[in-house]
Each structure stands twice: as C-alpha cells, then as structure tokens.
Amino acid sequence: MILDVGDILGIAEAFVITSAPNTRAVRTIVDEVEKQLREKDDSKPRSVEGLDDASWVLLDYGDIVLHVFLTETRAFYGLERLWADAARVPWENAAAS
After folding, report:
1. What's the rounded Cα separation, in Å, for the pair 34 and 12?
2. Is 70 helix (H, G, I), strand (E, B) or coil?
3. Cα–Cα distance for residue pair 80/18, rounded to 1 Å
4. Contacts of 86 (CB under 8 A, 6+ apart)
5. What ranges do the domains of the chain cover?
6. pTM for the complete prediction?
7. Which of 17, 60, 71, 72 is most exposed, with minimal Cβ within 10 Å?
8. Which residues of 22-56 are buried (b: 16+ CB within 10 A; e: fewer)?
C-alpha cells in the first residue's frame, strides 16, 4: 500500500507499507528494496530502523519511507488506520507490464 502523506506530514511525501509472514521474508524484502534502488540510481536509505528484530523495519529514503512489517505487527499497529486521511496511491506493478 502507498499512502500520500505529503500534505499531512510535511517531512515525507509517501509511505510504502508492506508485510511478510516471517522475519526472514521481512529481511528479504528490505534487502531487495535496497539492492534495486541502489542499482537504479545509487539511492541509499538515510536511516534503517528495526532490522535487529525485523518485526517492523523502516527504511527512510527522504521523500519516501518504507515500512516492512511482520503480518501480525502490521495488524497490531494499523498504520493504514492511523493515516486514514492520507490518499491511497494506485500501485503499478512494473514486473507485470
């Protein structure tokens, strides 16, 4: 899910929220995002938080903040509910095109 938080938050334009069923998958998602963005335009996160226990990992790329949750952690914190005023941004799967 992508939330447009620019008008609400002011320090980021979008939150990308995703989840995985176990910590290994959370770490795999984080690793792949970092790899793809580094290969695309040499982007590196400003900060990475939560990698130690991998139940909620935050990758801060400035305008975009990626939240990778364990499925149950995502349900518990409910960022989608917290940011209910934020517009949902349609997701285009580049791999499908």
Report:
1. 18
2. strand
3. 11
4. 3, 4, 5, 8, 15
5. 2-90
6. 0.89
7. 72
8. eeeebeebbeebbeebeeeeeeebeeeebbeebbb
Fold of 2-90: Beta Polymerase; domain 2 (3.30.460)
Q: List CB contacts of 25: < 8 A, sequence separation 6 or more.
A: none
Query: Residue 97's pLDDT is what?
Result: 37
Q: First vs last Cα of the chain: how many Å apart?
A: 19
Per residue in 28-85, pLDDT tens? Answer: 999 999 999 999 999 999 999 999 999 999 999 999 999 999 999 999 999 999 999 9
What is the model's pLDDT at position 96?
44
Q: Is the four-CA dihedral 26, 19, 54, 2 of positive or negative sign? A: positive
**Predicted pLDDT at 93:** 55
